[in-house]
């Protein structure tokens, strides 16, 4: 039961990361359409960071599939200084 809950949490975090990435792409499109070059650069950086984070998380998950262990996902909410960490076991 615990393993299923942790798997569900991992899926939820992945879905949230994908939603953030989608929003970053939308923001980039809006900034480009408005001709806001500074805003476009900022949005593009966010897209890049989302892609890097998603790639890192997926690479770690794949590595865990090859062996046994635990994946620690650290989620830091904007505006707070307290990180929230949840272990995801395979």
How are the SSEs placed, and which strands pair?
Layout: H1 2-33, H2 37-66, E1 70-75, E2 84-89
Fill in the keyword field for this structure.
90 residues; 2 strands; single chain; disordered C terminus
Please characterize this protein's 3D structure.
This protein is of the alpha+beta class. 69% of the residues lie in helices and 13% in strands. Strand 1 and strand 2 form a beta hairpin. The longest helix has 32 residues. The C terminus is likely disordered.
SS strand fraction: 5-15%
Fraction of residues in helix: 55-70%
User: What does the radius of gyration come to?
Assistant: 16 Å
Give the averaged pLDDT, no decimals. 75
Order of strands across the main sheet: 1-2
Number of strands: 2
Compressed to H and E, one letter per element, the order equals HHEE
Task: Describe what is shown at a glance.
With 90 residues, this protein is an alpha+beta fold. It has two helices and two strands, in the order H-H-E-E.
